[in-house]
Amino acid sequence: MLNSIALTAALLFSQTNQPAPTPVPLPTPVIVPVPVEPVPAPVVIVPIPAPVPVAETPAPALIDDKNVSKLNGQVVPVGEKNRYLYDYPKINISTNPIGYIYGSFTLGTAIALHRHVAIRFDTMFYKNYFGDGFSAGLAMGLPIYFRQVWSGFFIQPGARIAYVNVDSTDLVAGGPEMLAGWHWIWDGGWNVALAAGLQFTFISGKPDDYSLGVNSKGILPTGYFQVGKTF
Question: How many domains does the structure of the chain reveal?
Fold first, then answer.
């Protein structure tokens, strides 16, 4: 028993006096990069709305260029090409169609003397539809146009004379006059003139039952409405 205790004590003593073991260095760790595959982003599916049907706009109808009023390629109002031209018709024949209703018949001829001046001759005949009276006469005028003959504002000095038979009385009436008016003209030569003014009128005659005769004078209104065609 004592021997076993002594042996154990000797072993413990011998282990205590031994030098400490030399530490063994550990190897340096080597970091090896491991390739990492990228994770794809999640695919988000957005629903596309159905297309909204759009009404088709019909193509504009093409107009034949020959059906467009133009002058040297520029669009001008229909019937007004003459307003842009220096050339003008030389003759205008006109009448008053409304006068035929109440028995007044006129025929006028105007000749252009210049771009702004014309000379006008009128023949007139009036028949009373409801009586025996009638008249016939002549007139001459010199219309002066501010724009161009047969177009726009004008003044017209002139004179007229007429033979008048009313209730068995023969009269001669006439005198100088001054009118102002406006003239419209369209392509093709159709035109309308409207004028009004005053006439210094002399009236003379001799009734069948009055031997002294009739003589008077005064200022009377005058004017005309004419529809014409130039040539």
Answer: 1
